[in-house]
Structure formats: structure tokens, C-alpha cells
Design a protein that fits this description.
The complex is a heterodimer of chains A (about 280) and B (about 240). Chain A is α/β, with parallel strands linked by helices and about 280 residues long. Helix content of chain A is about 35%, strand content about 30%. Classes of the chains: A alpha/beta (about 280), B mainly alpha (about 240).
Amino acid sequence: MIEVTDLSKQFGDRAALAGVSFTVGPGTIFGYLGPNGAGKTTTIRILTGLTRRDGGLVRLNGFDIEQEPLRCKAQFGLVPQHTNLDAELTVEENLLIHGLLHHMARPDIARRTEELLEYIEMNDRRKVLVKTLSGGMKRRLLIGRALMHTPGILFLDEPTVGLDPAIRRRIWGLVRKIQSDGTTIFLTTHYIEEAEFLADRVAFLDAGRIVAEDSPAALMAGIGEWAVDYLGDNRLQTVYFGSRDEAREYLVNRMDGLTVRRVNLEDAFISMTGRKIL
Amino acid sequence: MIRGWTAVYLRELIILRRRLAKLIPAWSVSPLLYLIAFGYAVGRHVNVGSHTYLEFLLPGLVAMASMTQAFAIAGEINIARFYWHIFDEFQAAPISNLAYVLGEVLAGMTRALLGGGVIIILGTLFGVVLSYNFLFWIAFLLNSFVFASLAVGLAMHVKSHADQTLLNNFIITPMAFLGGTFFPLSQLPVWGQRVLELLPLTHATKAIRASAFAEAAHGGDYLVLAGVGCACFIFAVVSVNQAKS
């Protein structure tokens, strides 16, 4: 369980986080959506003890990250936005070092390494130096490494950024599998479809503040089910409708080049903030 | 308090082992040049007290190697920090800053031992065999403890890999030449000797040289090295704590 209350962080004159509060229940995937610079990574860095907060409270499974940092850090695994694997070590050695950092006994490390290499489908790469792996494999290994000590909470900071769609979907499958094992997942992303597919609840973060928090369906329901995109005043405009028939009716006698589609989380974000996520 | 230091140390050892075939020849180049140029060519007909210049030079080079190789851990830390972002993996793990510093300092001392070993072997090839006794190794380890700890502390303060070169230029190079490695400090005016006694390497060179010549060691040198080493170690632990933004 993750409990965050009135979290704030200032970088110079700029408020990176200005009173952020949320709770993530056990076993749920919490999507944290916002444009670049909204404060997503800052939140994760504070929650994982990499950056100090200026104010507020953070508790992970009941432990405060600044009062009891070591007990708190034992609760979670972290998949950072930028790959931080040890490139000069093999796949197996990366898992070994992580296990030792989490005070695991050698036999447990050996057993867990077997399980995880199977889990992330990298059994045949165990002796390979990390620097020779592809981007997708590095991402899978980052997730595997974060799960090495069987944490109750997993932080995923933009886990599929820069990956091609096929590999992205493979990672999504892996995340779903991790959730089914009972792990609480905190996911930051600016891929709308990723949040829609994975998250049980979503928070919209804009300029260091949470502007909305609900299930993806509830967030989208407020603006209608269907959208028509058209070019007006030299920019893409969107009109929302409650049903597909209403949207079709709108198209009658209008020029070509209009697109009818289902509404998504980005529509909800734009309607609340007036800005796009990407 | 120190649980987890083995992970930090083992990581450095694995990387060191993987690079060792390249590192040992690289570590041999400078000492070999010093031995040939200063020890063999220039100093062939020079005696320092009752010893040949080559015999005088070798313990100095060992002391210098224990400093430079231990300090080189700073470069490794900064590659891990700025290039591979591995420092975050350590900071997100349930280990104390003390455990992290201990692992890195021991890794620096291990590098120093290997670098010192290379010089002793080179010295043997040049026909210089000294007394590598218990006090010799104590002085060697204390000196490497000082500079590995200093390296870990300073590595937390540099903002880029380029800054690391500045540290070497301003700290290591002057100390290497002024710490009694190449010439006896007794040849300097008294005030010069007093100033250079502020450098930890001066005490390391004196202690390592005295023990290598099987002469009476000066306990004060060992105490200074132990004291400075502890101060640098505390500085390193505090610096790791401050490195968090």
C-alpha cells in the first residue's frame, strides 16, 4: 500500500510538486499520467528515497521513507526511466548483486534467479553481458531485477518508453502477470493506451498537482463515449458525443477528413487541463 | 549498519577481474618508465644514504601506487554514477551509506594492493628485493585506506566526469611528486619539510621505506595515516548522504 499526503518539492523557484496526495491500495495498478515535466519522476524519486521531499508524508506498507529508510526500501522494487543496469556485468551477475543488496541468502538468490529468468523469458541470456542486450531485453531485465527480492510494491517509471509497439505489448503482459501475483504497481507513463490497458486507477498530474483521480472508465465517462476529430482554425479540434449514432449524425453534410473514434484518457486530460499529455 | 557492503565490493571485484588482463599492463607502464628513467638511467651512480637510488625509489613508487590506484576508485564510481546511473540502484537498496562507502573503499584498497604488487614484481625484475614485512603492508594498507576514502568522498562532490580529471591534477599529481617518492625530503629546507609533512603520502612513503629497509619505523607516521584515514572515511559517509538531491 502506498500512502502519499500533501507531498511537495521545490526546485529553485519552481514547484515540482505542490501538495500531491493519493493512496494506492494493495494489488492495484495505479497509473500516474502527465506531460513531461509534470512531476511524475520527481514523485517516484521521492517515494523511493532518491530525492528528499520538502513537505508531506510518504508511507510504503506503513513505513516512512525518511524515518525508516532501510525498512521502507525493502518494500519496493524500482524500474527507473533510464536503464541503470550494470553494463559490464552479465544478466545473472546483475541479479546476484541486486539480491545481495537486499540481503538475500545465496541459495535464495540462485533459486529466485532461475524463477525470474524463466519469468522474463531470458533463460538463454543468463551469461551474456548486459551491454550486448537489445533495448527490450534490458527493460525486461530491469523489471526482473526489481522483482528479485519479491517486493510488495513495484515502481515502474515510463517502463516502455522508446520501445517498439510489439515489445511494449510484451511488457504490458509481464506487468499484468506481476499484478496477478498480488504486487501493488505504481506506473508513470505518457502513453495513453498503456494507462488505459493496465491501470485500475489513474491520477492526472499537471504542473505538480493532481487534477483528477478515478478509474479510467469513470474519467472518460464524463466527456462522452465517441469523439470526432476535425481540422478547424488550422488545428485539430475534437467534438464529443454520447453515442456513435450522434457522432455519425454530426458527420452528415460535413466535409471529408473527419475521424470518428472512441474517447480516450487523453481526451479526459485535455478537457480538464486544456493541454495535451504528449 | 554495514549489511550489504559485500554487494558493493563484489560488483567492483567482478568488474576488476574482467578488466585485469588490460589493467595490469597499463599499471606497469608508468612505474616501468620511472624505474628505467630515474632509477636505472639517471640514478645508476647515485646513492641515498646506504642505499642505491633504485632501492630508494622502489618503496616510493609502491607508496605512490597505493595512493593512485586507491584514488582511481573515484573514476569508477563516477562512471557508474554519471554514465550507467548505478548509484541510484545502491541508493534505492536497503543498505546504509556506511555499507556503500565500506564496499567502495575496500574495492579501492584491493586495486591498490594489485597495483603495489605489480611494482614489487617489476622491482624484483630490476634486481631490487626489499623487506616486505608486516609493517610494510600495514603502512601500505593505511595509505590506500586514506586515498580510497578520500576518493569516495570527493566522487560524491564532482558534478561531471571532467571534474574528476581536475581532482587528479590538483591533488594526486602534486602529491605524487612532493610526497617523498623521488627524493629524500631531508634535502629540502626545514620549512619545506614541515609543509610536505602535511601530506599523508609523505608519512606513507616514510613508513613504507623504513619498513622496506628493515629500519626502525616511526609510530607517528602510522598514527597520522590512521587518523587521516578515519577522517576521510567519515567525510565519505557524510558526502554520500549529501549526494542525494
